[in-house]
Write a structure and sequence with these properties.
Elements: H1 3-32, E1 44-45, E2 48-49, E3 68-79, E4 82-95, E5 100-112, E6 115-128, E7 134-144, E8 149-158, E9 163-173, E10 184-193, E11 198-210, E12 216-221, E13 223-227, E14 233-243, E15 246-257, E16 264-276, E17 280-290, E18 295-299, E19 303-306, E20 309-312, E21 315-319, E22 324-328, E23 331-333
Antiparallel strand pairs: 1-2, 3-4, 4-5, 5-6, 6-7, 7-8, 8-9, 9-10, 10-11, 11-12, 11-13, 12-14, 13-14, 14-15, 15-16, 16-17, 17-18, 17-19, 18-21, 19-20, 20-23, 21-22
């Protein structure tokens, strides 16, 4: 091989190496380039993104319509910068595209001014991720922060109105006191308004409360209201109360507690009261029953009829549960 041929071969070899280098670095990557995937859709909560730690996992767009299953779900819903509810569930199954999720072993904390006022638990539930409404069913128990417990078959929470509803039968157990168990009530259609912390049973009220010395109240009414701020109870509409040997009737009755004492102190009946026992009948505009001292005070055109005698005055008081009667500024009509 002469020098010229050797030099020509070197030049050709060098050109081939340069061509191969250009192919690898410039042309070949262009042929292998993969277009980037569109950003995966996310479920949102009040304009904020939910991460997988919130319970719902991100899915590619092509899988939006597929069913998803998750364990140990935890969600927090906020309104106007404040927590509305916080949900815990053992598992969730649903479809992000349809916006609904089915839950197992549910516990929901409902907040008011960043404080938990109600806790609801149930066997199953569902959440509409579009409007944040909740439905819980199966052995549902609603507990207020001040000790009321409501047992129902199901509840529905309207997130826009912040109201818990159950149109079904409800059993309520009031907070206990120094004399033992609290008020036991059965009725229909429970409603809890979270913002004003009020609990209402709308229909068919039958309630019972042990007082002392084996005495108890039995109450029948059209509806009943309870406050999450105190233990007072209010009964409305054709209220009938059996207490000891007395029957008390009126349109509205309130059970009041002593300040600083865990004990019912009085019952106030307003709007036209009738009281009767085995041998007498009394009526007035209002009645104040001092439970601790077994004292009935009638005010507002009070009148007592016993046998054929009639007593009226400015104020009439039954002492010792009606065994003695005291009349202020008495006016009497006595039959001979």
């Amino acid at each position: 091989m002469n020098f010229k041929n050797w030099r020509l071969k070197n030049i050709i070899y060098t050109l081939l190496l340069v061509g191969l280098f250009v192919e690898v670095l410039i042309i070949f990557p262009d042929r292998l380039e993969i277009p980037s995937e569109p950003e995966a859709p996310r479920i949102t909560r009040s304009g904020e993104e939910l991460s997988s730690s919130d319970g719902f996992q991100e899915q590619p767009e092509s899988n939006v319509q597929s069913e998803q299953k998750m364990q140990g779900v935890h969600l927090v819903e906020s309104q106007q910068g404040r927590r509305d509810w916080e949900l815990f569930s053992a598992s969730a199954e649903g479809n992000q595209g349809k916006g609904s999720w089915n839950l197992k072993k549910v516990r929901v904390l409902f907040y008011n001014q960043e404080k938990v006022d109600y806790i609801v638990t149930g066997d199953e539930g569902s959440i509409d991720s579009r409007n944040k409404d909740l439905y819980i069913r199966g052995n549902v128990i609603t507990k207020s922060a001040n000790g009321y417990t409501f047992e129902t078959a199901s509840i529905y929470y309207n997130s826009a109105e912040r109201v818990i509803n159950s149109p079904e039968l409800v059993t309520m157990k009031g907070p206990g006191d120094e004399r033992g168990s609290g008020l036991i009530l059965k009725g229909t259609h429970m409603q809890v308004t979270v913002d004003d912390n009020r609990m209402i049973i709308h229909k068919n009220i039958v309630a019972e409360k042990q007082i002392k010395n084996n005495k108890k109240f039995q109450v029948v009414a059209d509806s009943a209201e309870f406050s999450g701020k105190n233990r007072e109870a209010r009964f409305l509409g054709k209220v009938s109360i059996n207490y000891d040997k007395m029957k008390i009737e009126g349109p509205e009755a309130s059970f009041l507690y002593n300040k600083g004492a865990n004990l019912i102190s009085s019952i106030q009946v307003k709007g036209g009261v009738k009281v009767s026992d085995a041998d007498k009948f009394a009526s007035s505009e209002n009645l104040d029953l001092d439970v601790l001292n077994n004292k009935f005070t009638f005010r507002g055109k009070p009148k007592v009829i016993q046998n054929d005698d009639e007593l009226t005055g400015d104020e009439i008081i039954f002492l010792d549960g009606g065994k003695r009667v005291k009349v202020e500024k008495v006016r009497a009509r006595v039959e001979k």
